[in-house]
Please model this.
Amino acid sequence: MTSCRDIFCKVAVVKVLVLLLVSHAFGQEQPVDTTREDSPATEIRVEDKAEQEDVAIEGEEAPKLETHTILGGFSGYRFLSINSFGGRAAPYDYLHSSPVGGVFVNSLGKDLKFSVDGAYTNEKDYYGDLLFDYAGYYRVHLRTESFFHNLSHELLFSPAFQLPPTNATYTPVDLDPAGRYGIRTEQDTAAFRVKLHDFPMHLNLGYWRMLKEGNKQLIFANQSFEATTNFINATNRAIDQQTHEGAIGFDAHLGYVDVIYDFKIRQLDNQASTPLAQFMALSDLAGNIVRNAGFQQHNEYPDSRLISNTIKLHTSLSGGLVGAASYTYGKRENLSNLTDIRGANQAVTTFQNVAGDMTYTPCGEFSLALKYRRQQVDNDNPTTLVSLFAVSPLVAARPSIDTAKDTMTATLSLRPVKLLTLKGEFKGEFLHRDNVSAVQSASSWYLPENTDRYTGTFSILSRPLSGLRFKALYSYSTTVHPSYGTSFADRNEGQFLITYNKTGTWGVTANYRTRRDSDGEMSKNTIVSVNPLEYSPYFAPLGRGQSTDNATASIWFAPLNKLIITGSYGFLRSSVDQAVLFTVINPAIADATNYTNQAQIYSLNFAYQLNERLDLSLFLQQVRSFAEFSPQFIVVNGTTNTAGINLISRTNTVESSLSMRAHYQITKNISCAVDYTYRDYDEKNTTFFNGSVNSVIAYLSAKW
Model:
């Protein structure tokens, strides 16, 4: 866990850098050279520049622009009140009261430019950013940010149950019944860029780190399947992972071509121990022991390493004809530390990426773009693993799949008139696999050798009237030999967007998007299973169809001077119809099922400026969502049926939130504000995760 000492160290470093930069800026203020092409983004009108030149011709000194510096900060306290769980009402809040604060410094001078920005909400939620640039020759960017994610303590089924035909008992065991879970994620970035004086080349150095720490719930099975007691366990798992990445490279302008090279190495270190538990002996469906009992490792997060080299070339980006190409060669290594099973650390993946682009834009009314991508992945894993608990210590490993994917895209854009743009695109994706076959076996995978996908898209963008804009899009995709039973063979997708704004009065935006997926090869998409009693192969056709509809609409209007009201509505719905194979029923059946999830979002916002000093705002939002899995009702052998399955998977939630803010400008440079937020989570089928969070933040801010 990150200690207060670590946080204070980071803050101290940032403070020292800020003091050094501020003292340098105020001690060496210099005018902005308006004749430099790399001068800062200080706006100088053309007529003003001409006047300065005229004055200079007459022998008078041209006016000088001073360094612009803005600095400020805020400080206050955040009061939190939590009712019941609260973790789903505010999933990304660390639910503890704490002081809050922030600071920013922005300075823009002739040669020296820097900015510092940071905010502190609590010990697990903060960020800091520093950017320093000197005359374009040296640039340093440092950033740190952290946030916290509350995780749920999922409930296990209750009570224990038996499954025919062996009547094996499955018993739930929660080893951490009172556990509360959450993970803090921190990212730290450091980038350094230096220009070799007047030579057109930059040297780039970078470092990136991601830290994850906290705990989460781990659910795992301890079972032997055959006429005995099996356990489904839940326990607390510590999370302590660090990912480090270092990069070095350069970019250079060499005549007509720009060259970029980048070397990157990334390593994941899992510093938490691998879970260990007492497992019973495991038998196959024929009753043969395949794994001995004992304390065994499980659910490992293996360490890993990635090394890659990338080179890119491109012509001038301002010409009518632009070309670009890149090549990446990399290797990923599994650095597993398992002691029960050995050999996984010998798995290595080598990948190569090739890309080529060409864009031709002879005029503003026509543009043609061609793109090519190729990714080749070679997986090399050991042929055997060594297991300390297997009856036969040498366990054969199935050869991994090698893939090669080619993607070609052609995009044509036409603008026949000023207010109308037509765009068409054709995309082809061709995937090839090795080590696959038409039948699952110990030496190959049950997947198609080649999967080809073709996609055509046509869109229209228009602005027929002042303030009115609309976009219409249609896309069709077809797949030859879909990869999996859940893959689509045909997809139709459409989108329509319209916006209208009448300046200072009202405006409206509406968007609708729909998608329809179907499986055109229902007879070929099958699951191969085993009948629990007869131990014979079982084949079941699995047809699949999916529909998705998303619609959003919002309107704003100003009924009174300095009062703006905004209302919006969103509708999201997805429905999947698919046959599902139930093997726990004797005999096994393929049943038609439907899975539906839907959400409706309502929001209303008020913003009112009472006078020159006081601003008020109010925001209301409610999200209503549900999800349900509904198999067709089937009775097997007069005793077993599919009733009740949808009850254990159904969810119905209402999430409500209210935010109010008052901001008062005390003086020109000093202001104060109070923010109040209320969030509530209500699950209709269970009250375990229900809860609400009240938050009040009062702070004082200053700006110079």
Notes: The radius of gyration is 31 Å. The longest helix spans residues 4-27. The first strand starts at residue 68 and ends at 84. The chain has a mean pLDDT of 86.
